[in-house]
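Researcher: We plan to redesign the surface later, but first we want a full-length starting point. Tokens attached.
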């Protein structure tokens, strides 16, 4: 009976291990720098979907994507704090939350459905010096983790049933040991799923603020000298 019990336990574990899939790292779509005046996510979408058509394009729309954006904004120094607070208030009204806020930068998470809207709103608050959208494809990692979690939960149920059938202390100890390991795996996988879900539900944006003050007469003089030198010696 003991040998039969152990063989059943081993077969159960091997079956579960065989059903596990290889973990896939998230794939990043290189959105690159976005030219001034254009929306970053629009350019990124064109870049990532270039060359796709028909069925392949349809499949891509089902991918699970996470968005990260940043903007360098030129604003008058005297209005900088007010503009930062206006953006922070806008984020809170959109059910977002602030990670960090100081006199030169603002980093926050916003519900993904408001990402484009928020990105466009920020650009109205000053002169956009630089902007970028980073798109991360977490589809494979998400579904791989989800399948592993389902398999582990099924194994946990089987081990609980097997524990009820244990005939002696030795069998009980063996099953409890494996049950403890599987339970730890489940907690780890659940934590990973929560992180992925957070990436799906929320997008992050970082905004950096710089002074856009107009230079005085002396400043314009040196700026003109700089332009002249650049024109003479730097050829594009």
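Model: Full-length starting sequence:
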């Amino acid at each position: 009976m003991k040998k039969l019990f152990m063989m059943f336990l081993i077969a159960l574990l091997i079956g579960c291990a065989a059903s596990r899939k290889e973990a896939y790292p998230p794939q990043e779509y290189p959105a690159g720098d976005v030219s001034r005046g254009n929306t970053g996510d629009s350019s990124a979408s064109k870049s990532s979907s270039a060359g796709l058509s028909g069925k392949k394009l349809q499949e891509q729309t089902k991918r699970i994507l996470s968005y990260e954006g940043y903007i360098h904004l030129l604003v008058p120094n005297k209005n900088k704090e007010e503009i930062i607070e206006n953006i922070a208030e806008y984020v809170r009204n959109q059910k977002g939350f602030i990670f960090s806020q100081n006199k030169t930068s603002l980093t926050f998470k916003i519900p993904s459905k408001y990402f484009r809207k928020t990105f466009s709103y920020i650009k109205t608050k000053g002169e956009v010096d630089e902007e970028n959208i980073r798109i991360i494809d977490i589809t494979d990692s998400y579904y791989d983790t989800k399948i592993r979690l389902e398999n582990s939960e099924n194994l946990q149920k089987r081990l609980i049933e097997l524990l009820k059938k244990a005939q002696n202390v030795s069998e009980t100890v063996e099953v409890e040991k494996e049950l403890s390991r599987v339970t730890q795996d489940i907690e780890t996988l659940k934590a990973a799923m929560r992180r992925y879900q957070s990436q799906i539900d929320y997008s992050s944006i970082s905004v950096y603020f710089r002074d856009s003050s107009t230079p005085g007469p002396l400043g314009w003089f040196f700026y003109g000298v700089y332009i002249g030198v650049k024109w003479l010696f730097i050829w594009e």
